[in-house]
Amino acid sequence: MEKHQLINNTRDQSYEFHLDGDVAKIDYMKTKNGEIALTHTEVPYKFQGKGVGRELVEAVLIDIEKNGEKVIPLCGFVIAYIRKNPQWKKLVLEGVNV
Known about the structure:
Elements: E1 7-9, E2 14-19, E3 22-30, E4 36-42, H1 52-66, E5 71-73, H2 76-84
Parallel strand pairs: 4-5
Antiparallel strand pairs: 1-2, 2-3, 3-4
């Protein structure tokens, strides 16, 4: 699978992969305590089913971990990814069930 470059678009509050003129993204909100709430994942139709969404979630979680932040997964796709890859539960804010 091709690796894409993760872009943190702070202006639009989204993590993005730029894909041949299209954008796959995960929208987020930062809480006043600094946690990252991942609210919505969107992958262009022509890239669905090709692993782009999984790659995007993993890249975002790696970035969040690198920055020492905690995550609040609100997006169903992100929640499903964390359930299938429980090693990422360590990043989920305490008290949030996944």
